[in-house]
Amino acid sequence: MEIFKHTNFDFLGKKWPFIIVSLLLTAAGLTSLALKGGPRYGIDFTGGALMDVNFIKRPPAEAIRSALHKKLSGELEVQEISNSQEALISSGAANEQALQIARNDMIAALNASFNPDSGGKLDINNAGQAALSDALRQPLANASVALSDDQLQALAKSITRYRDAHSGLIRNLDELAGVPGVTPQVLNVIKQVCYPGSFNIRSFEFVGPKIGADLRQQAINVVLIALGAMLIYIAFRFEWIYGVAAVIAVFHDTIITIGLFSIFHKQIDLTVIAALLTLVGYSMNDTIVTFDRIRENLKLQIRGSFPHIVNLSINQTLSRTVLTSGLTFLTALSLFLFGGQVLNGFSFALVIGIIIGTYSSIFIASPILVFWQDVADRRKRGARPPAVPSRPQNVAKPVKSVKPVRTAK
What we know:
This protein has 13 helices and six strands. By secondary structure, the chain is of the alpha+beta class. It has three domains: 12-40 and 208-377, Multidrug efflux transporter AcrB transmembrane fold (Up-down Bundle), CATH 1.20.1640.10; 48-115 and 203-207, TATA-Binding Protein (2-Layer Sandwich); 122-197. The strands form two sheets. It has a four-stranded antiparallel sheet with strand order 2-3-1-6. A two-stranded parallel sheet has the order 4-5. Helix 3 crosses helix 4 and helix 10 (270-299) packs across helix 11.
């Protein structure tokens, strides 16, 4: 499918505005990284604890932070998730032992501030299946509700399954009236033993500092190895200058993307590294398609200068570039808008990377080829010996002798 036919856009003639934009974005990103002491790594690379908490009515971030500081020391970060009542709470940890007690301290701090009137009852919104069945066993027996262990386990499973199906939150215990196994008598016992807390711990992750440092180094090594392998492949498949131009363009894409992460204060974790590797492969593939068309046109000995052939090749691959980049961009944009907080960093990297990677193949990599060809042509002209004239240019030509003309007598 070709949506652009016989186009003749002067892409190389419009390269300078894009090059200037790239320089400005690169400078802004590097400045932000320098001022902030480097990228903002997630707990995957620094080590620490991350808790996803869903509130019935989320308190302000500052109130959550103040509550946590009563139990936890060090740097704490509370990130509110838009269009949701969730909050992401992250805490650094100096050692493995501190990580083991971080979860209990976080829950205790949240309970002390946002569930003050528990009265010793079990929080049904954070209780596990085993804890719930243990808490109900004796009160149900006292209320003359005869349940075997299997029936009690099935009851606890039904309650937790209902809770998890409703974002982990039971707002009123009367909701459980429709749960299988919850009779009016059982519901009365549940109300005596349990209470609905104001939040639910949806997930908890922790990574040791040493493991985080190892993961960070491995991520850097993977990106560098990928770039080096692509440089070798393109140099072998085309010419070395093609490989250099493609790798410079990919470095350009990666640096700008990381810089924008710093500017927008976004974390870099393992999912972002996966997005960067995807970006490297995608941008490199787009560049190779253009370079391959340039090589084919050179073999066909199409008339015109090298910049003309490069412009022609970009125009010939324009439909393919717009179709692949456009559809991929729409997919990444959908993930960014509707994918939730977990995919936010991944999708943000893809959205930025596709835009930057598409124009870098045209306005960064291709001008590098043209520049190098101009340099090579100048060297050839400078190394060519001057033409030797067939005769001295300042010596007058010898005058041929003229025979005397005889006249008739």
